Here is the input.
Amino acid sequence: MIDLIEQGAQPLVDAFRRPITYLRVSVTDRCNLRCVYCMPEAGLPWIPKPEILTYEEIAELVRAAAGIGVRSIRLTGGEPLIRRDLQRLVGMIAAIPGIDDIALSTNGLLLADQAAGLRAAGLGRVNISLDTLDEGRFTAIARRPGLARVLAGIDAAIGHGLGPVKLNCVLMRDTNDDELEAFAALTRERAIHIRFIEVMPVQDNVDLQRTSWISSDEVLERLAALGALHPVPNPHGNGPARTFAYDDAPGTVGVISPLAHDYCERCNRVRLSADGRLKLCLFGDHLIDLRTPLRTGGGQAAIIALLRAAMHVKPERHHLTLGETSSAMRAFSEIGG
Ligand code: SAM
Here is the structure.
């Protein structure tokens, strides 16, 4: 695939001249948690199993994308670690020429058991979701218990070199925002990179979003009140976080603020749903079916043609408004954030 670029294939660039080098792949829409901001406790229809891409199909899509300049892959979900033998997929992707960064987003519940195998298969790093350090609160937010297992997963990720280990914390007013200081303190002790994420709207959380949303500006003010805070480069990658560190801290704190300060102009990514649809903006409803050409033998040429055509459809920016959703997305678990 590198050959394609070497042979003159143009890398993927969208209509707004943004190079698209990053593909987020949802491997399942199922999850073993039910976080209140992400998905309903029950009633979400699952994608029928036959519609979910096989590992071979995902690898074929990644190979096509790598041939036209995609370099980074993130596996997400639902919860990716509940899909059987994920390390097999990691190994397949790691063998694709051109892919130089494989990351995983996980809630960490199953990570302690799988970290060594994932690392050996070629996984580079993990982001782990953690909204609270209190077990009772964890159960209230995730609607399932499991804090101790997540903490064990974080230790395993660090122990097996799956770093920089980033923690994603969705901060909600009067739910967990009083833990901001405790999370910040962790970065002074360990090489942990915490990113506070503004709650984003999906159809099922609009009420929660109206009552709980906290601006990243407020978060930064509160972080700065805890000690001198220096801007630092994002540890690994050019993601959307604005990142800072305290004096001599091994870790960093950051904010991701799609609403208060969107980062659309730097957008470098597209997303693949578990059933093989390319999603061009997290908050848009532009979806392109890649599964049909895959399953009808269209081969790499057909997929590459569709990826290129998608670049004309990718919107310049999202049109999110606080407390509203402009998208048909019911839950983040459908696409993986
Ligand atoms: N299960 C994996 C995990 O927990 O990281 C991957 C999928 S999860 C949907 C990806 C990320 O999206 C998590 O960090 C989660 O906290 C975040 N997320 C889900 N719903 C969100 C929302 N409404 N607003 C902001 N972040 C959200």
Observations:
- DSSP finds eleven helices and twelve strands in the chain.
- The mean pLDDT is 92.
- Residues 31, 37-38, 76-77, 79, 105-107, 129, 168, 170, 197, 199-200, 202, 205, 332-333, 336-337 surround S-adenosylmethionine (CB under 6 Å).
- Residues 34 and 143 are 5 Å apart (CA to CA).
